[in-house]
Amino acid sequence: HAEPLATGHGKVILLGEHAVVYGSHAIAAPVPLAIEARVKEAHEGVSLIIPRWGVEQRLESQAEQRRSFDRPIGMILEKLGLAERPMLIEVFPQIPRAMGLGSSAALAVAVIRALDEHFKLGLSDDELNDLAYECEKVAHGTPSGIDNTIATFGRFLLYRMGEPPVKRQLSVPAPIPLVIGMSGVESLTAKMVARVRAAWEKSPGLYEGIFEQIDSLTLQGVKAIESYDLEQLGELMNICQGLLNALQVSSWEVEELIQVARNNGALGAKLTGGGGGGSMIALCPESPERVVNAMQEAGYQAMEVTIG
Ligand code: MEV
């Protein structure tokens, strides 16, 4: 009989990406897109298949792993003492790769959960989250830990590095309607985070001023969300996008999607996640279908989600 599927949640960041790497707050929520995985017995070796991404491969020793998605998996197996155990790891992603929706963290969480279930390891969510964070470091360099936290716990959170992961869960009176627009341009978070780091190292004062402004509007975002003041939330998202532009992490396609959203009634629109391509989000309480259609007409993939 088939083992049940283990889940890692995808995410959107509403406010605070990039600045969160420098100790600012960020607000993130799980989206109804996930990555699922299961582990099956095998006779020899470790195989990884991700049919949807066309991945079918034997995991070689860690030194030989080059692809961004199997390097962390090799590390997980080592850390859990499972490197010598033959197995087949099957992964079923509903999240597109490298679109700013947390696919790498969701994949790590799904695989760790599947290993935990198959080998009856008895990992707690905190242990799982810590391990997924180690994977994110392998994949991303200096992550804040926000993606693995949402992938693990699947809650709507105000997050800050170094604080307990679910210290501040946000409560909303009603779901928040968003449209996710995908630029179709794959982007590596690692590259964007490194770019911001290089700029910050060169002019720390200049960039820390931007991080502080992002922190302040993120904290105002908590109030807007909890009082369901969507106009205010939309405005904060728009200003946040201006600051993300100041960090130079937007892209041509993301900017087009943002303009399309705003021209079609969105209260706010900004990139989400690492930027440099990837995805954007638009706050659309009135006419989400209109925004989705306009994005599709402009040649992009888009979908409605609600969070909270
Ligand atoms: C990526 O989803 C969010 C960033 O802030 C990086 C991080 O927090 O690790 C860009």
Brief rundown of the structure:
It is built from nine helices and eleven strands. The chain has helices at residues 71-79, 103-118, 125-140, 146-153, 189-202, 204-226, 230-246, 252-263, 288-297; strands at 6-15, 26-41, 46-50, 55-58, 87-93, 157-159, 168-169, 176-182, 268-272, 279-283, 301-307.
Question: How does the SSE layout of this entry go?
Answer:
Blueprint: E1 6-15, E2 26-41, E3 46-50, E4 55-58, H1 71-79, E5 87-93, H2 103-118, H3 125-140, H4 146-153, E6 157-159, E7 168-169, E8 176-182, H5 189-202, H6 204-226, H7 230-246, H8 252-263, E9 268-272, E10 279-283, H9 288-297, E11 301-307
Helix pairs in contact: 1-3, 2-3, 2-4, 3-4, 5-6, 6-7, 8-9
Bound molecules: (R)-mevalonate (MEV).
Using brief descriptors, characterize the structure shown.
308 residues, Alpha-Beta Plaits, 9 helices, binds (R)-mevalonate, 2 domains, alpha+beta
